[in-house]
Amino acid sequence: MTTYSTPLEVVNTLHDHIVSSSTFCNREDFLEILEKVQNSLSNDENPGIDNCHVIRCINLEGFDGVGKTTLANKLAQNPGFSLLPTLPDSIRPFRAYFDAQNEYVKRNYYSLCNIITSHKLASSSHTTVWVLDRYWPSTIAYQLAHQDYLDLASIENPLPWPNHLVRPSYVVYLYLNEEKRCGRIAQRHSHESMIPEEEQQLASDSKFRERLDAIYRRVENIRSIDADATTDEMTETILQEFKNS
Predict the structure, then answer these.
(1) Which of 65, 75, 90, 115 could make an SS bond with 185 (beta carbons 3.0 to 4.6 A apart)?
(2) Which domain holds residue 67?
(3) pLDDT of the residue at 65
């Protein structure tokens, strides 16, 4: 059975890490953010939120280069829809630091992003249809896929959402032929001297890609869509299915 860190465990892990780090900049700013998150957990303004709470919104998932961001921006142009950044502005400046840390610390940072996003979803107006470009499914998929000796048979199917996060009502996994995906990535990074380490692993390690793909597809109530289509075609498909969901 897959176990998930609680919000308090995430906060404590990050707190202990940055307090002991000799290279972390703006330590006091991040500690203040952690304190605010911890206070919000202790004094939840939405006591009715529980593990069954589902928000009517669209969550796009998938590898880099499949078109998530382009599609999210297109969906957000529809009346009543809006894009909700899942990398909150308050902790976005710290991303480069945490991306350079070990996998455990790095995933706790993204878990913190999920906690903040979940609270935003729970406390926001339900008249807005939020569009999320990645959320918890990416965090758990990468966390598990980085375990080289992972036995996929040991992972629940479907893979349940953690109790502490608000769940989107419509979750889409966009997948794409690897050759085409790499072509898009090459275009994106054509003027850059360094390709991100995680993308290098995706491109070079077929076993990692297979694990990642399999885990994404196991997420509870996720819908898989081939991203080898136009943005307009995918938008139409998603809006129709979302309307009927």
Answers:
(1) 65
(2) 7-244
(3) 95
